[in-house]
Amino acid sequence: MACHATGRTQNVPGYLMRSVFPDGRVQPRYGPGTLLTDSASKFKERWAGWYVTGTHGEMRHMGNNTCEDDNTSFDRETGANCTALNQFIATEKFLSPHCDIVALMVLQHQSQMHNAIAAANYKTRQAVHQAKQMNELLERAPDHLRETAQRRSNTAAERVLQHLLMCDEFKLTDQIIGSSQFTSYFEKIGKRDRRGRSLRDFDLQTRLFRYPCSYLIHSDAFDGLPNLVRIKVLQQLLAVLTGKDIREAYQHLSSETRRAIREILSDTKPEFRKVEAFTTGSTN
């Protein structure tokens, strides 16, 4: 937990990807520190200490290389746009000769999205438990929820929503192309709406996904959130997608993109459709 329950994992036991500074022996040098790798990370600060296969145009990362022992500088050209790892390692010893750049980008999103879900789960359960204790002491109704507990749950829901809608995602400036079949496989297993669209569809031109709402909204982890916070997330999500919530954090979503995400969720997420029907009074 010294590494996996810190501010880098949203203060709950969770996942993280880091860029480290490997020396000539390919050992991480912790003196210069490490860099958290997530969807908001600058491209040039990603994947130090990792192998990376696939092309990315003029953008540069820190993978496929080591840094000088006496500093933290990288030759980002040497490891750029690498499509095969056999120049670095004997790939036949491993399950795959690829370390696909698209898979790495999906992993970095998934790690922090799961952390946001876990944090919302923790904070809501704690708030409800503490409220029940106070209700017993003060002889209040068992299901009474204090305003402070509501605020804690609302804050957790907002964090989940911002990760769902990829609010701080770094904008790509060149096309990403993976080196394996990962891209096509990942898209193939997505839930699709009546028009054939899925939250797993990639963009890879300016952002990771064509419809920037996390596919993890379909996960068991999301469905396992306490009702209090899960319904709040869906209600807030609907407010953003219908244009009722116009806060700056969600201005990266065009009206066309919001409409597409809403239609996909209406067809693929029954609970979202129920929240939508209850909120709008629709019987469809």
Mean pLDDT over all positions: 90
Strand order of the largest sheet: 1-4
Uncertain segments: none
Strand coverage percent: under 5%
Outline type: globular
Structural class assignment: mainly alpha
Tell me the layout of helices and strands.
Blueprint: E1 18-19, E2 21-22, E3 28-29, E4 35-36, H1 101-138, H2 147-164, H3 182-188, H4 220-223, H5 227-241, H6 255-268, H7 270-280
Antiparallel strand pairs: 1-4, 2-3
Task: Please give a structural write-up.
The protein has 284 residues and is mainly alpha-helical. It has a domain at 110-175 and 195-280. Helix content is 38%, strand content 3%. It is built from 7 helices and 4 strands, in the order ββββααααααα. The protein has helices at 101-138, 147-164, 182-188, 220-223, 227-241, 255-268, 270-280, and strands spanning 18-19, 21-22, 28-29, 35-36. The strands form 2 sheets. Strands 1-4 form a two-stranded antiparallel sheet. A two-stranded antiparallel ribbon has the order 2-3. It is globular, with a radius of gyration of 21 Å. The N and C termini lie far apart (47 Å).
Features:
284 residues, mainly alpha, two-stranded antiparallel ribbon, two-stranded antiparallel sheet, 38% helix
What's the short version?
With 284 residues, the chain is mainly alpha-helical.
